[in-house]
Design a protein that fits this description.
The structure holds 2 protein chains of 2 kinds. Chain A is α+β, with helices and mostly antiparallel strands. Helix content of chain A is 60%, strand content 22%. The relative contact order of chain A is 0.14. Chain B contains 12 helices and 2 strands, in the order H-H-H-H-H-H-H-H-E-E-H-H-H-H. In chain B, helix 3 packs across helix 11. The chains are: A alpha+beta, B mainly alpha.
Amino acid sequence: MTRRSLIALVALASVPAFAATSLEQAQKRLHAAIDEVLAIADKATSREALVERIGPVLDKHISFPVMTRRAIGPGWRTFNQDQQKQAITLFSKLIIRSYSNKFTIGEHPEIKYQSAAQPDVGRVEVTTTTVYQGNRYAVVYRLEEAEAWRTCDVVIEGVSMVANYRSQLDPVFKRGGAAAVLSSLEQSAARPQ
Amino acid sequence: MNSLLRLALVAALPLLSQCTSTARKASSTAPTIATSKPAKAAKKTAAPATKAEPMDDLDEYAVVEINDPLEKLNRGTFWLNDKLYLVIFRPLSKGYETITPKRLRKGIYNAFENVKFPVRLVNSLLQGKVKGAGLQTEKFLVDTVAGLGGMIRVSNKIESLSSLPDEDTGKTFARWGMGHGAYIVLPFLGPCSVRDSVGLAGDYALNPVNWGYFWGGEHDWTMIPPYANTLRALPGQLGTYDDAKRDAIDPYISIRAAYVQFREEAVKK
């Protein structure tokens, strides 16, 4: 066997192992993120406290720039750097609040990890069943690897958070461009809860 | 009411067939109803992109679309429903939550879901899911006998029964190849499509809580089960509505997109 074919063989053999490692790493990261969030939610005494404490944790585990970019879609290219920064800040605020609102103080969700798949290199989808307030929900976490594995979308019972915002922001962008998108994000983020 | 329902069905049928053919036509060229799956993943199996522009992660998600020719009217009904929820249904729901302990509420909710067994059974069979129909029957028997008439979901502890998909007539129509047709916001009931509204009529007829009303004559008591059925579902439904609306940029589109994605996912199961 030549040296080249030996290298090729080793490389080929290591592909499944690499995939398995990615799956494991992503799942491990998601477990850690969920545990961290649940620990905060369990200790929270008010919704305001929950939002305040959960923000930095979500910031660590969720890729807000990726989510914002995809929620805005191709129109993102027309945003200047300042507008992009502002959009990410506002969108993060909205997502953190939206995620925190899913918790009812004093209720502990039970998460059952069902399966994990790697639809593409650097992408992992973890399917879970969440039992919350006596109801069962299928929740899929979409993770992508940049510097670390981060969640880029959460799909609850088939409803993707990013696709939902993308559908709302698309007509806004078509109507008034980046300025209209920023204004609508500002209005939503400022809406009293 | 029977004749009213029949009239509504007859009136909706031409709309349905028209919309179905529109949906089929659209699906033969490009999927009109985008799923929540990233567009890139879908592209691997779909026809090659005809766009000249290269794909990047900005095109990752498609806009969730559904034929909405009645958007102006729908937005009006959406606004009206929002006010109705605020003025009538939310106080009713709050009152129900106040006078009924949480565990009892859950029990009542479960019992009404359990009684919907004919809806699940008939639609499993209509979709050709014979094994599914058997499991639905098993679930119903287990919950009815061991779960105090369905108040306790004993079946949740049995793996084969714990995550059986819900079945309904709209889903059956979808499995038979019918498209959504036009999107409609129904007064009181909220987001729906022509296909699913006809399905709703089927579910209504198959649900035993409405049978007294259909066949029990003009007695007042026949209204109690349907009203109770509405009341027990209110807290959950209003919660879902609030969730979808609260952080929305355009609540109408947010709920429409969530409805389309949710139904697409339900049909896959």
